[in-house]
Amino acid sequence: MITLDKYSIGMGDRFGRQGKAQLSAIVQARDEGISIVPVWNKSHREHKIIGTHPGEVRAEADAAVRALSYTGRYHVDADHINLANVDEFAAASDFFTLDVAEAIGQRPAEEDLKKFLRACSDYTGRLAIDGIEDVLEVTQGTLERIGQMFLAPVKEAGRIYRRIEHIKGRDNFVTEVSMDESHSPQTPVEMLFILAAIAAEGIPAQTIAPRFTGRFNKGVDYVGDVGRFAREFRNDVAVIAFAVREFGLPANLKLSVHSGSDKFSIYPHISKSLADFGTGVHLKTAGTTWLEELAGVSLAGSEGLCVAKDIYREAMERYEELCGPYATVIDIDPTMLPSVDDWDGAMFAAALRHNQLCESYNPHFRQMLHVSYKVAAEMAERFYGVLDRYEEEIGSCVAENLLERHIRPVFGGNGR
Ligand SMILES: [Zn+2]
Question: Does the pLDDT at position 146 exceed 70?
Fold first, then answer.
């Protein structure tokens, strides 16, 4: 049985060059007593945009593991997949993130809805859950609304899950159900009955990725009410513990935080919940490594800076095309996007790097570059050339970013 450890981090690597650097951060954390399992994730969307194949992610992970003689567990995540593309990922992956956000709100079959309402009717009335201060009020109307919204996506997750099970065999992979790219957040009460439906559907989910309250924009800090997020996160954790006992879901079921990189203001709250409840979390990051590559490239010398500026200039010309697929997870004010013509490498890196204390830091610039990796992919050898040439400098930026800005704040003090 492939079981995901208590603490795990999803690491994206758009161009497949930083596997060793990423793994070195995991090894360094382990030496500091923070035990955390690496998961290399890449979505169908990323593969399409860059022109890579899931097998390349597996090859990169295996190569990094060999190079560092790493003996711990690790996984390869088919991130944000659906029924149309799951087959392409089957051989290379042992972790599957079933993205069913699109099915939210689709009308469920009448028979399915009736079955759901019957199964959940025991929970109507006042529902007390350990760890949640307020008693939850659940009415028949609550259940009906939740069934109407979330039964169709759970049924869809069941279809994808069974497809993977058919190909790979039961227990040979980790299942995550994700609804994070939806238009509105899911409340803890919704989460409870989504989990009831997931259990009834026979999906042994080990992680669940809701959309949380507030904005989880790509590569920048959390935007929203931090106190509210903290309460909601704790309530979600409590609901999961309850659902595991009540519905017989896998004991290691935990939250997965998508677009989890760079959410510095909420990390202390996540960390505290983990400590208070003794629970785990999966922190999924993707593009933050690419941004470190770009910062490293811009600092590496005039040729690197020239490449970095060309990527940005071309991205500006293709603004709609590049931002479109990420519309729900970015907030860019085009009037705040700078001209970089006169900038040196230090200025480019300072505007890009996520240092909120630095006056030059520009979150609009950073998000714009976050979605601009397609331009770098099209440059092909010109971009890969600078990545290879400055491998060492870039690798240390990548490892430092993961360890210092992500692993230690979220898992340090918990992962022992
Ligand atoms: Zn996601």
Answer: yes
**How do residues 253-267 score in pLDDT, each as one tens digit?**
999 999 999 999 999
60 C-alpha vs ligand 1 centroid, how far in Å? 22
Distance from C-alpha of 409 to C-alpha of 317, rounded to nearest angstrom? 37
Place of tokens 């994070």: 180
341 vs 324: CA distance, rounded Å: 26
How far away, in angstroms, is 199 Cα from ligand 1 center? 21
209: CA distance to ligand 1 center in Å?
Answer: 7
Closest CA to 285 of 75, 8, 27: 8
- Compute, in angstroms, the gap from residue 208 CA to the centroid of ligand 1: 11
CATH number, span 7-287+401-411: 3.20.20
Rounded distance, CA 325 to CA 59, Å? 27
Q: What's the rounded Cα separation, in Å, for the pair 207 and 17?
A: 27
Q: Tokens 């959940």 appear where? A: 120
Measured in angstroms, how far is the CA atom of residue 402 from the centroid of ligand 1? Answer: 18
List, for residues 309-334, the tens digit of each pLDDT value.
999 999 999 999 999 988 888 999 99
Task: Give me the chain's average pLDDT, please.
Answer: 95
Domains of the chain by residue range? 7-287+401-411, 290-394
Distance 210 CA to ligand 1 centre (A): 9
**Is-contact 58 92, C-beta < 8 A?**
yes
**In this structure, is the dihedral angle defined by the CA atoms of residues 310, 400, 214 and 83, taken in order, positive or negative?**
positive
Cβ–Cβ contacts within 10 Å for residue 239, how many?
A: 25
Signed CA dihedral, 3, 8, 9, 15: sign only: negative
Burial class of residue 224, CB neighbours in 10 A (0-12, 13-18, 19+): middle
174-178 and 136-138 strand pairing: unpaired
Which helix (H) or strand (E) covers residue 138, if one does?
A: strand 136-138
Distance from Cα 284 to the centre of ligand 1, integer Å: 8
Axis-axis angle for helices 302-317, 381-389 (nearest 10)? 140
- How far apart (Å, rounded) are the C-alpha atoms in residues 360 and 346? 10
Residue 226's CB is within 10 A of a number of other CB atoms, namely 16
Question: For position 329, what pLDDT does the model report?
Answer: 85
